[in-house]
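Figure 6 in text form: structure in, sequence out.
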C-alpha cells in the first residue's frame, strides 16, 4: 500500500512551488491554528474531529507534493520538498498525539495565557 501511495507513474501537473508553499505550508499552518483554537476552547469531541481532518489533509498534501515534486527546474528541489514534507508529516502526527494526550489531561495551552 505504501508503495502505491508514493508511485510516480501518474505525475502531477501543478507547479511544485504553488503546491508546496500555498497548499502545503500556508494551508497547514492555518489549519493547525484552528486546531489549537479547538484545543483551547472546544470540547474533546471537536478536537478529535479536528485532528482526524488535519491528519487526512496532511496525508493528502503529502501525496500531492510527492506527485508534483518533479515539476521544477532543479531536481534537488524536488528531493528537498519530499524530505521536508515527510518531516512535516511526522511532526504533525506527533503533535496531534500530544495535543490529544494533553486534552485528556485537561492541560491548557501555555502560549495562549
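Output sequence:
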Amino acid at each position: 500500500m505504501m508503495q502505491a501511495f508514493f508511485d510516480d507513474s501518474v505525475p502531477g501537473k501543478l507547479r511544485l512551488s504553488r503546491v508546496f508553499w500555498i497548499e502545503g505550508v500556508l494551508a497547514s499552518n492555518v489549519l493547525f491554528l484552528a486546531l489549537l483554537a479547538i484545543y483551547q476552547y472546544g470540547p474533546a469531541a471537536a478536537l478529535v474531529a479536528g485532528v482526524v481532518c488535519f491528519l487526512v489533509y496532511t496525508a493528502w498534501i503529502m501525496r500531492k507534493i510527492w506527485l508534483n515534486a518533479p515539476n521544477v527546474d532543479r531536481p534537488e528541489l524536488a528531493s528537498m520538498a519530499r524530505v521536508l514534507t515527510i518531516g512535516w508529516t511526522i511532526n504533525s502526527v506527533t503533535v496531534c498525539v500530544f495535543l490529544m494526550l494533553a486534552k485528556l489531561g485537561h492541560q491548557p495551552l501555555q502560549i495562549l495565557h
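Caption detail: The CA atoms of residues 18 and 90 lie 22 Å apart.
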